[in-house]
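Appendix B. One record, verbatim.
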Amino acid sequence: MKATFFFLLILPFCISVSHAQKSAGKKHIVTVIDMKNGLPVKGAEVTLTSITEARDVYTEVKLTDNSGKCGFNIHFLPNTEYGVFAAKKGYVGYLAMNPVKISRYDAAITHDSPEEIKLYLTSDSMHQVEFYRKTEVRYEIPDLITLLKSGNFHGGIPLLYWNDIPQLLVVGNDKTMISRYPSNPLSSSASEAPLGMVALWLIESVRIAEGNRLILPWQRFPSLNPVIRNMNDNDISADIPGTMQKVFVAYSKWWESVKKTDSSHGCRVNPLEGTGMCWQ
């Protein structure tokens, strides 16, 4: 009886100690640096994200102080991933040419991560545009078509120019099915598509990018995948060859009407205007 009484007496104390230990967690200090001048960034928004079992997402946001720092207490739970990223109006995330990790404005956090974590932004508004411009790959159109047909193409949308459009139109109704074509990083899946539909998709990409020197790689994609949707019934046409023929005709007519005008004007004319179709 005395033993039971003693256990009940110390139980609240044990629970209190256990809770205090859990509450302590592990403190991580995040410092945000401006890579343009090497100075700390005051008032940067740092977001801690935790994802449990790839399903439940929780976020905590803090602002950096005058020294560019803020802190988080993290209780590392099973089956949970943690990460932080920084952002601030007037800044962009800093990118570095690194084969392991390009972005320097975010970081994964594990129990073994150092307590001091540095994230990098830059007040150079052109940094990301210039960074990706250096990584762009240029193919002559015949070489690009060969890569697409052979299934040996890899990567995003290559560097394309306004005067590439006629050569892309040559294969704009080609029914050859291909499985390797520029992949949109925002798309979770991609299926086979006719070469012609991909060529028309690339023409639309040229139209989007023409005259826009601030465009980023993922903004060059007209849609998640080279798929056309019927706006009238909000459905994707099952008749892919028939749909491709209509889109090909629309882009051919558009090119005939704009090819002799300045590209800054031609790119503002939507080839699918009035067709009831759009890129999905």
